[in-house]
Amino acid sequence: MLKKTIYIALISLLPVTAISQTPVTLQECREEALSNNKKVQTSLLQVQKAEAAKKEATTAYLPTIDGSANAIFIPDLEELRQFGIEKDNLQLYQAQISAQQPIYAGGKIRLANKMASKGVQMAENAREKQQADILLETDEAYWQLFAMQEQQKVVKRFTEALDSLEEQLQATYDLGITPKSELLKVTVRKNDAEMTALEVNNAIRLLQMNLAHIIGRSVNAELLATTNPGTNQKDKISPDVSEISGGVDSRPEINILENQAQIKNLEKKVTRADYLPQLGAQVSYGYLEAPDIAPGSWNINAAAQLSVPVFHWREKKHKMQQAEINEQMAILELENTRELVTLEISQARLKLEEGLERIQLARKSLDEASETLSEVEISYNAELNTITDLLNARVAHQRSEASLVKALSDYEVLKTKWLKAIGQLNAGSEAQQNNEKF
């Protein structure tokens, strides 16, 4: 009796909870996740950092201009008398501004700018990858919540049907027509349904907290998933080799590794440039004054410096070997990742096609379970079936409903995984929405 009272109290609270929930669509959750998620914000800062590094690299083409000033005072300097200077101390004032310009650095400045540009591209690719990861994580959390909400509805309908059946049996039991064992069978089954309802409610709360955390809302927010899964299965996927190869090239992971391999090639060229002649020029304009010794004057100086490596005990050869090995390792990693991504795309395609089949089978099972339940109810009312047969039919129908909801939700996640696998999942992609009831 106490358990029944608790159950009635929980059911009475359900409408209040529903009112306090905040409806959210899948697209809203995606947009909030991309705007608020800390990982995405960090990836955006990495792009800004790479762009700043690129701008820094371009400044190497320009001359550097530096200014300096010195004031020197040396007391009790008797050595000045040796030069015929009647002073006991030395004062010296100097100021200078100079400009230095590299003329030829073996191509290192140009190569450094290319590497900085590759760094920006890699940061952009990393940002795209992080966004795709967050979108997939958001979709998984959203559809898990949606499936559990639908499961809650199924359990509620099942419990209401058991309530009605229990009332009927209680009436016939009171009249002495139905044995108590038949009534107890329904009561036991209803107790199981009440426990299931409690577990589903707790699962929904946890899933709400998980989704709220991902999209940057308070974990106490009670979210209500309102986007229905797509149910149009006419546009089946047909195998296309070009789609797989194009998907590999569209993956940000592949683009990152391609840029890394190109950077290793540029680093090899930089290593070679370290052993080429270096030529630079400098122009300075300065002021020098030593009171009572030399009057102050301004002077212009120009200088050029040429550095030519001569002999470094085969250091260049060993460094070039290391650079070439690094490049080969980057190329091997790229090729291996290409193969893994191709395999991932093929697996995602098979899973997506399997998801379609699961929906069709779930629909067929639900139709059969509905037909069976209808026939068993008629037979039970005609006293041709037992209460056990009726309960089993209701349980089978409940499971079929739950299986269809899960199949539809899982298919939406599989679509997201497929788009991510072929590199087409981005901030502008919208989930297909279909209001067809199931």
UniProtKB/TrEMBL annotation:
Gene3D superfamilies: Outer membrane efflux proteins (OEP) (1.20.1600.10). The keyword Transmembrane helix does not apply. One of its GO terms (cellular component) is cell outer membrane. Its main location: membrane. Residues 1-20 form the signal peptide. Residues 148-175, 352-379 form a coiled coil. InterPro entries: OMP_efflux, TolC-like. Belongs to the outer membrane factor (OMF) (TC 1.B.17) family. This is Outer membrane protein TolC. It comes from Marinilabilia salmonicolor.
